[in-house]
Write a structure and sequence with these properties.
Length: 136
Amino acid sequence: PQLEVLWAMKAYNHAEVYFNLISSVDPKFLKLTKIDDDIYKIFRETFKDLDIKKLNPDDLKSEEMKEVWRPFCNQFQGLIEDFNYGTLLRLDCERDYTEDNTIFATRVQFFAIEIARNKEGCNDVVFTSKSSKSES
């Protein structure tokens, strides 16, 4: 139980830091890993039609999708530190981390989806809404 609490705290801290980052820096200019472009290219080749703006939990957790995600994630073993470590991921990219807007994902899934969201402008709304609030 203590280990689970420590993991939960670490995952929450990571989520909080990431959300603060995309709130204060234009997400298009963020680099999350040394291999962002490779992750993005392979992600979009593998998941051409995945709606990254508003994920459905089945996009990550259904048996059918697990069979697609598993080989995608495993190819990054050794390239991304703790590639399969548990991470929190927002379902709706326009909203903050809340109980009903958060799903458990691997670190590679988090990177793939958030890199795509950043490159495709999906996280812009977080940045613009936070920066416009700070100006008022």
